[in-house]
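Hello,

Our lab assistant flagged a job as stuck in the queue for most of the afternoon. It eventually completed. Since we weren't sure the result was trustworthy after the delay, we are filing this so someone can double-check. Below is the sequence as submitted and the structure that was eventually returned. Let us know if re-running is recommended.
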Amino acid sequence: MRGLRYCSATRGDAVGWDRKKRGSGTGYFYLSVRTPAGVRKLYFGRRTAGHLAAAVVEQRRQARQAAWKVIREERAATAEADRLAAELTAAAEALSAAWLVLTGHERRRGEWRKRRGKEAEGRNA
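-- returned structure --
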């Protein structure tokens, strides 16, 4: 019977507590760690070491959440400026494209090139 256990040290949030078929009904704390060989589980036990490790994991999780909250707030604060910058960029690209067409350029494969030969003379005349 595997599953998550809720720890009082983490204020009820789910952490790496596993319940085994045999042994303590309270579960054992495991921390999953990525290594070049694959994901490995570190065993911390079910007593003080397990609760301390669970508390450290929870503190790290809360710090990550706080950092992401700051990033989301900064993105929201600059959203209007980003929208205006994108609008200005689109207008500048349209204006420069119009100018290049009027001066005898054409767009080929995403690049602007000057028209040459009789075709260019006929269009500019």
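-- support follow-up --
The delay was a queue issue, not a problem with the job. The result is valid. The longest strand covers residues 28-35. Residues 1-13 have pLDDT under 50 and may be disordered.
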